Records
---
Amino acid sequence: MSNPVEPFVMFRNVDKSYDGKTNVVDGLDLDIAKGEFLTLLGPSGSGKTTTLMMLAGFEAPSAGTIQFDGKPITDVPTYKRDFGMVFQNYALFPHMSVAENLAFPLRMRKVAKPDITAKVKKTLDIVQLGHLADRKPGQLSGGQAQRVALARSIVFDPKMVLMDEPLGALDKQLREHMQLEIKRLHHELDITMLYVTHDQTEALTMSDRIAVFNDGKIQQIGTPSQMYGSPQNKFVAGFMGENNALNGRISSTGEDGLVSVHLTDFDADMKAVSKEPLQIGDTVKLMVRPERVRLVEKADAGGPAGAFACKVTDTIYYGDHVRLVFGADLNNALTTRVPHDSGSRDWAKGDAVLVSWEPRAAIVFQP
Amino acid sequence: MMRFGLPIFSGLVLFFLVSPIFVIFPLSLSSSSVLTLPVPGYSLQWYEDFFFSERWLLATRNSFIVGFATMFIAGLLGTMAAFGLHASEFRGKKLVLGAMSLPMVVPLIVTATSMFLAFSIVGIANSLWGLIVAHTIIAAPYVVITVLASLQTFDMNLLRAALSLGAPPVTAFREIVLPMIMPGVIAGAIFAFATSFDELVIAIFITGPGQFTLPRQMFAGLREFMSPTISAAAVIMVVLSFVFLFITEAVRRRGERLKSSPAEH
Amino acid sequence: MNGKSKMSWLLVAPLLILVCVGFIIPIGYTLIKAIKNPEITAALPRTTSALENWEWDGKSPPPEAVYEALIADIEQGDRGRNYGSMTRRLNFEQSGSRSIMMKARRIADKIEAPYAVSLPEAVPEFGDGDIWQLIKQNSNPYTARYLLRAMDLTVTLDGSIERVASDQAIFVDLFKRTFVISIWVTVLCVFLGYPTAFWMSTLSDRAAGYVMLLVLIPFWTSILVRTTAWFILLQREGPINAALLGTGLVDEPLRMIFTRFAVYIAMVHVLLPFFILPIYSVMKRLGMEYVKAAASLGAPPWRQFVTVYLPLSMPGVAAGAVIVFMLSVGFYITPALVGGLQDQMVSYYIAFYANQTINLGMASSLAVLLLLFTAATIAIAKKLLPETGSGIRA
Ligand SMILES: Nc1ncnc2c1ncn2[C@@H]1O[C@H](COP(=O)(O)OP(=O)(O)O)[C@@H](O)[C@H]1O
Ligand SMILES: [Mg+2]
């Protein structure tokens, strides 16, 4: 799957502009393998929906080609593309019952009546909604409506399913439940799915691969652990999960891909990975994840190499863990998580500590 | 004083609004040919006159032909145009909307004069077709407005969903869009029918006696000789207005009920 | 153009084309008619071209060549339709011209050259320059004379613009009257409609639904039927007079039909629902909260009303008033049926010139001015209230 011979979906150099001036999707190259669960992740307005709309056939690319199963599909109208779609507001037909909603795509394909009934029943059972077949959409709860929408998008055995922030309107608990359900469907049906969200947790938990969007461009594409563990640029590093972004200046460079950074706000020199060619003296942002920051009480003499001393400026209680904040300037503060259980130490404002991290846990980017 | 003054004042105003309409009911049933109250006795002679007169029957028939044709053509073109205007942002959209609503603001007499001049040139003055074209033009803006209003609450994702589920555009429109905007379409179509059915100024200009509609025939009657048959014709038209009003209100109330039904959460 | 806007255009096209062909082009054609002036050149092509180089000195007739051209035009032209239109056209500019030109046609066969002598002998008016100057002045294919006349102005033989004789100066008065009637009808609608709509907005939804029917019934009833009702009610022997006589309030029937009073009462009746419906929906949205808030701050009732409610409901009043004013400016049927000749509005004269005297130039000129009048109303309304046009229908 990681190295497809012939991609199922292929975007090549695709641009899209609504006003003829700015490209909201810009030079997009994207491959989706058969059976893959690919997520487009990015902030609002980054062009995810537009990309999905082009694949679905609601919008035509301004330039470039989109191929599906080896053939260009730009001229194929939506209704002949055979893609299931799920929308954020469900888009269930309010004047049709649940069963009629599911029967609709089958009717359009001129499936015989008895087959429709059977297929609708089977699909409703898959999403565990068999008992609601005669309800109208207005009589369903949000979660139920979402599952009907999901069922409707797969009932006709589409070649692929496209979902645009399908869980956006649900509360947190229901959303997490539905994430699992969609994941299960993906496995059971072995179907290609293109999923759009702005929620990085959702992307990390569900996807085979994630493509991070910003400003109409893919910033990075890869597996969740690649995206989380080795972001290619500052945007991805900041967008995927929590990250500290500390101000610094390069103080020395080495051949092993590591550089030394002088942290301006903490007056300390720390090592970090560099993926860009940087010169001594360049100002940079050093990114390090809170959970990779290690603390040693100052009282313990010495501490690990490359640690620096500072004081806790704030503690925030989270139940299972506590966050400690260092540094005076809140916008450039360093945060770390420490587990909170019976055996752990209680930190307080003003406590002096030594802070350190593995050189490979930190990355520098140009600001 | 305000406590009683306002209801009394309003009551009088409302009485002023409806009483003249109801006064013609007894008058039309009068046995006398002098239209006065109280009526000396009751008879159906004026209705007999109406239903046995070639002229009135022809006028009634013409009115219905033109009214239904206007309703269908204006309903169809107006709904199509409203959907086109709603479906996308295109250049010149404001201009198109402006052009389409012009017939609502241009004084009818100017419209009538212009159509009379132009229709004479192409030879559709003095024909029911000319009247149908004219009425369609002045009625269609109302259809566009009412359908646009109901499209405001229509979720375009429903149309997208239908297309993605394999419905060709026309089917998607018929099965998904149309049922949802039906109240607006019906209200617009009824208003188109009523507009045509009531319209007189254009009819004065572009119809000959063979194409007289009910209002045109009434107008001729009022100007030539005042016969009580006119009051019977007026009552018939009022009753039809009640029917229009009733249908429109029923559709509107049904639309409101649908809107206030449990939400999608 | 992308696929979606192509679809939009396809859907919009049928109605747009119909409106363009059946409405906008005809209106444009009518407007052009207001300045078209083909009659003289069509009937007298030779005469007009012979007159081109002639300069009028205030009295002398033109040279023989012009006389010959006129006789040739009469003898070789079509003597019927064109000539008739030409004489009517000249008569419109200068009454009496029609009979002069008719006489010329009658004796054209009987006189001999030189016509500069024989024609004035038969028809003395051809002996001086006036009639010739009139022909020359009107031989341009376009003219502003109809538009000028619609403002009671005319062009004299020496080319200056002045007011027409007082017995022909009817149009300025006509526009003034149209304006005054429309203003009064609007004022009356506001006066009657505002309190009524306010009262309706204080009712419970259920009650308001029923009361609303009393507004909707007249709204849906045809204008002609409602005018007919008043036509019957206001007759000399009609129900109102019968009631007044019966109760002894008057000794002889009042003259109500064919008066300005009848025009006002019928027009207000027709237009009042157009005012009540929009203002009612504004008031319904406003609710009573603001007034209650003002009351809780200790304002006395009339002050609450004047300082709080009135300004808030003003946009609705303005919207309704604009609708009523615009509709009444174009009124035709109602004044035509229940008013006297002195109560007719611009529309009546447009119909009169278009249907009865077939003076299309005049009909079109009045139409142009009426259109400008309406456009100005809309423009002023748009300026005063950016939210107008929010629906005649509540
Ligand atoms: N139909 C449209 N017309 C004009 N601009 C649009 C349209 N749809 C989206 N855009 C613009 O394109 C950009 C990308 O939007 P979108 O693809 O919806 O982003 P996302 O789904 O990532 O939030 C935004 O700036 C948005 O305003
Ligand atoms: Mg989006």
---
Amino acid sequence: MPHISIRNLKVSYGAHNVLKDITVDIPDGQITAIIGPSGCGKTTLLKSLNRLIELQEEVKVNGKVLIDGDNVYDPQADILSLRKKVGFLSQKPCPLPMSIYDNIAFGPRIHGVKGKQILEQIEELEKHCPNNEVCPANTRNTARTHKNGEMDLLVECYLRLAGLWDEVKDRLRMPASKLSVGQQQRLALARTLSVKPEVILADEPTSSLDPVSARLIEEQFQMLKQNYTIVLVTHTLRQARRIADHAIFLYLGEMIEQGPASKVLCAPCEAKTCAYISGEIS
Amino acid sequence: MLVAAAFAGSLAFIVILALYLRSKPILDTKPLSELLLNSSWLPSQGSFGLYPAILSTLYVTAIAMMIAVPLSILSAIYLAEYAKESLRRRVLPLVDLLAGIPPVVYGVWGVLTIVPFVAYIAPVVGSLGIPAAGAGRYSTGFSLLAGGIVLAIMVFPVIISITVQVFRSVPFEVREASLSMGATQWQTVKHALMRVALPGIAAAVILGFSRALGETMAVLMVVGNVFIVPSSVFDPAYPLPALIANNYGEMMSIPLYDSALLLAALILLLIILMFTLAARLILIRIERRVTVG
Ligand SMILES: Nc1ncnc2c1ncn2[C@@H]1O[C@H](COP(=O)(O)OP(=O)(O)O)[C@@H](O)[C@H]1O
Ligand SMILES: [Mg+2]
């Protein structure tokens, strides 16, 4: 069963129909790239998946988005647990106005996770990433003895998971806004992961980054995809070819083609996809 | 900028100097402690104790701020974060309109509504045995509380309008980042937006506070103007601005009278300067804390 199924999704801003009847499945445990020229509705589609779209004024959504079989637009659906389950990484990283440490601790704190629950969360995380040392033994020991040791441990683990720990371990109390943009994006990734999402939505997460940081983020995604469903909007075909397993091509609010990335990005069936890939339309 | 700042600074200095020179006669004849701490104000007998007026000023302002600050900040948060854009667009001009109504209108309105309201609730509240509410004494309604309520209403639009602007100036992405982790809207306001907004809100409160301290006309009309040390919020009072406005220019044949009133003005100015300065310092500290995170 696909993790996310989009059924007849129509989204409009006021009178402007942006998404016109999208029906598509997003497979589990893979990186799905959404590609298409700018303004075709990629961001809109992405934000529809965890209802972040509803923060826009005058937006109207029709149709269904099924996650694990439940329609997220059901009036009874719990929007808070949906957003916890489906994390979002924005185009321009936006650190919360607080320290690096507090950025990571924010999510667990608002969800009231503390003490033993934190330790359980970390154990679960370790099972997911066995070949990746996110939680060194010495840190774990200090967590038992120190006050707030569990939260310190959690912050360290997620910063390690996002590949940021070594760069910030001596200045955790510094405002997150002082980090470079590339570091901020990895911080945003760590922050998103800290509430145990199952799906990560990423909206052109590397477009404002330097090539080295962009590469780091891509590597993180490839590592994370075993345990998370990743939906990645990307404006560069090269990035999609490098890391995507599955691809969806949007054009003027319609889904033109979808399928395995190798097929859609290299040997598409539709004429419009061909035109986009060869750079005739952009 | 520099020239303007220097000009404003020297203007304040000139005003203080002039007030000081004009109040010098009374400062030369009476000890300062008597003027500040004596409660009897009998100009014809040469007794000029400003204590009740100083206290009244502080009380009436404190009551106004206790009412205005929580209510206006909550209203501003509602308008900025919860209300729809269409509602915001309709309400904010009204708020600005309220800020432009002349104080005398608030005064008349206070006399017609707030004063009778206070007179009505005084015996009820007084019988509850709250210390600051008096012991069920009769009140005309012209009182500290009436002054505080009218002042609070005058201060609302100032605080609301600035606070809404402060919240709207926080980047949309901060909300998005917080909400996308499953935070509620209130958690987002309280833990994320508040941090950015706090210096601005403090500035709004300070602005409202200095307006309340110096406000004259509306307070004068509802506060009773009786020269006593008020012992409950239902007692009348005589704040400094009202004292000056009511008496300056009259009975100037009484020796030292005008000098005493100008001393009152000097004290008022110094109180306002002191609070503004303290508020500035608080603001600087908050700003530093917010950026340090
Ligand atoms: N908040 C909004 N209000 C009105 N129109 C919007 C809004 N956001 C996006 N649009 C319009 O919707 C279309 C699709 O936008 P978007 O989903 O951001 O495209 P993409 O991410 O593919 O560049 C564009 O034409 C854009 O102008
Ligand atoms: Mg976009």
